[in-house]
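To the structural biology subgroup,

Please find below the input and predicted structure for Transcriptional regulator, which we are adding to the shared reference set this quarter. The sequence is reproduced verbatim from the submission form. If anyone notices a discrepancy with their own records, reply to this email rather than editing the shared folder directly, so we keep one authoritative version.
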Amino acid sequence: MRLLLVEDDELLGDAIRVALAHDHYVVEWARDGLAAERALRGDAFDLVLLDLQIPGRAGLDILKSLRAAGNAVPVLILTARDTVRDRVIGLDAGADDYLVKPFDLDELHARVRALMRRGSGRASAALEHGDIRLDPEAHTVAQRGEPVELSPREFALLRLLLENAGRVLSRGRLEEALYGGEADVGSNAVEVHVHHLRRKLGADLIHTVRGVGYLVKKAGA
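Predicted structure (tokenized):
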């Protein structure tokens, strides 16, 4: 899952980036409003974490522009503005949630997970597909009730495929989600992870769409 963090405070931004990376999110960090706008024009994100008081262009203006353009990406405002009026303005401008600084990182994780669930139409954080159950909060995978050991990237790949069941995801998108633009990524890295998942969870789970990417079919399809 790809997140855009818009935050000009170096210490806070680095703490948030590291914390979310531990949850296997790929985080792009924009330190001002202009960089945020460039990122949003060029890439698709699953969630935006948006500080309001940033140089270049105000966070509230970025939010209004997003919604005016029809971009429905979930937005979580992170700000020191703590009055009721500030919250009303942010939510009315199109934010999906509002978190006041200083905040606990555990609460940030919980709010991110809640927005992800809301965006995918799920009431529970757990993903179930046939006899497979993936719990992103506990970071566990079970098949027929028995635990399955996955590497962090295998877990992240399975999670992304299950969250997008019924959709073909390109190798490029999967590679970006798993490695976030790292330079030293083997040309067959995604294929290796797919092979391992098939070996551990069954050869029929992940389908190859030749020339396009990979697909987990919707349950029952």
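Summary notes: The chain has two domains: 2-120, 127-215. The two ends are 24 Å apart (CA to CA).

Regards,
Lab coordination
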